Amino acid sequence: MHSQQLELPFIFEGHIIMSGILNGSHKCDHIILDTGAPSVVVWVPEGKDARELGIGSSGEITSLVINSVEFGPVCARLKRVSHTKDFHVFLGTEQLKRYCLILDYERQKVLLQLTPFNTDRQCSAISFSRGRPVIDVDIAGRNHSFVLDTGSNVNWVFWKSQTNDLFEFGQVKDDSCEVKSGLGDINATRSVLFPVLNFGGKLNSNIKMRLGNEKDFGGVDKTWEDGILGTGEFASWHHGLQIIDFLSGRFLLSN
After folding, report:
1. What is the Cα gyration radius of the chain?
2. Are 157 and 233 in contact (CB under 8 A)?
3. φ, ψ dihedrals at 84, nearest 5°
4. Number of domains in the chain
């Protein structure tokens, strides 16, 4: 391992799940790497108290350690949920943006590099929207801004961006499924398949995106972005590295 890299092992269940220790002694087996969250969020199951993990009533976490890497202290947003019996900690962009993230899904490791990734290839530029990384994707001759979301195993096009020119570029079909999301389970009914999209420094073929609706994503007045690129979805068709380099502001799909 490079002397300037830190290593986080994970298991992959559509998104990256790690184990860690909160506040010195409380083990948590559901820590999700989630650039779709601006900062740390903790799911607190119904009938449980965040103090079981040593978390204060306002979300204070003095220490969060994953494989000897310290991310605390942080102040988490606590969210009461009924659909899980286990605590889930979502590690967001604020805690990750001081690194170059190298996502290796085949080896099931995230490398946190303390220097920018060395490449001469053209990459997608990273900007930020409400604390989350965003890249532009050209669809039908117009740039669309997508949240780069390590916490999602699905690509989404938000309802406000579902325009005729976008549909003419891709193939829309009825495609019902229930998608698990931090917003709750979403019943998606349609999808669009794009023959080719250029992002991450390469041409990507047959990219499928689910069509979200107003209820799912808050409506046009609350949703500035055009959609979500779920890096968990990438793992099924890109078998190299995914590099979210916050240090240089670039995103790359590397072989």
Report:
1. 18
2. no
3. -145, 155
4. 2
